[in-house]
Amino acid sequence: MNSSRLFLAFITISFSYVSVLRSQVLGDGIVGHVEGEIVLMSDVQIASFQLQEAYPDQSKTDLECMALDNLLMQKIFVIQAERDSIYVSDEEVDQELDGRIAYFEEMFGGQENLESYYGKTITELKADFREDIFDQLLSSRMEGNITAGISVSPAEVRSFYQAIPQDSIPFFNAEVELAEVVLYEKPTDDQNQVARSTAEKLSARLQDGEDFEFLALVYSCDPGSSKIGGDLGFIRRGQMVSAFESAAFRLKNPMEISPVIETEFGFHIIQLLERQGERIHVRHVLICPEMTDENLNTARREADRIRDKVLDGAITFEEAVEEYSMDMSSKNQGGLLQNQKTGNSFFEMDEVEGVIAVRLDDVPVGGYSQVIPTQGYRGERGYRFIRLVSETEAHQANIEQDYSKFKAVCLEQKSKKHSTIG
């Protein structure tokens, strides 16, 4: 791991390895619990394995202690988040899953190699990861709420930088930060009505006793669950969009089926399989409105219109993101694209074209690309335009050029200290 990657790993420790490695850890046992939520030795071993990459000089015992502390704190954040009704959407979880799966596919040399190594399909791997990812996102959001009022002064950042040994200051390759406004195609009222009618007919067939798994396999447009009969696994409150969640938790008896439920994704029919305390195991059929090229053309015209408003100064880019952008993952970051390999917003130059499928050679810092095609994680077609937020040449890290990075690390340390004390 080169010095810049070590620095970036120190900034934000991702749990990309957690679920994938769990199957490789033997000799499990409970090593901690918080209000009934348990931490297993396998969880500690996996987390300490990852910490070793960021802290190579620490002993195995110290790493396991750090890992246990982190995992217990995550449990506390998740419990408090549920009490405070902190929300992480199904879409955010799916986008995070897609990003991490893409990262592992690259590590293993493609989807087939990844599936072969673990003996599971991508859909099955995502199902295995889903609850872990949800907990991580929920914990992170709760921690962010707790530490939202914390700040660091320029003097603190400079002191932090000056305390780093000279031989430990990293070297950064040329990097850019990118942000986006995304417009996906949207159905017309007539297209919605056709989809609802299809869902109602399927609902009647299910009420008459037809096989749920078969109908989900044949008709559902949810790519993550249709191949496994619509199975979504166990969910908890706050994990799905509100309309879906309300309908799902109203189901009382195993095999009970909901009426047709509309969300922003389409029309759902939900079946309860099992209830375990505050968790329910459900499956669904999702019927999506059928789009045409005219829907896509409308999205293109809207993206062009919004880009023109930004260029003319009628609205700021940040206002465009907040009011119009339809990609929740980047929207929640002010439009910033996240690098799935590092967990932050910086991309090395050789990564850029693969991320946005367009070159930015003629775009100045603060400038915008033309409107370009894009696709959402559920296969939604659309258009987006990219803002080149920042660009740096390869260099030894220094406080002048990299103030924001050192500030992020300093703030992260202060926030963690505050949340632990609090």
Structural description of this entry:
Helix 3 packs across helix 4 (60-83) and helix 5 packs across helix 6. Strand 7 and strand 8 form a beta hairpin. This protein has helices at 3-11, 18-22, 41-54, 60-83, 90-108, 111-118, 122-146, 154-162, 189-207, 212-219, 242-250, 293-312, 317-324, 328-331, 349-356, 403-421, and strands at 30-34, 37-40, 171-172, 175-184, 231-235, 261-263, 266-276, 279-287, 346-348, 372-375, 381-392, 395-396. Helices cover 49% and strands 17% of the residues. It has 16 helices and twelve strands. Strands 9-4-11-10 form a four-stranded antiparallel sheet. The chain has a four-stranded antiparallel sheet with strand order 5-8-7-6, with helices on both faces. The chain folds into three domains: 3-146, Orthogonal Bundle (Triger factor/SurA peptide-binding fold), CATH 1.10.4030.10; 174-185 and 292-393, Chitinase A, domain 3; 189-287, Roll (Chitinase A, domain 3), CATH 3.10.50. The protein has 422 residues and is of the alpha+beta class.
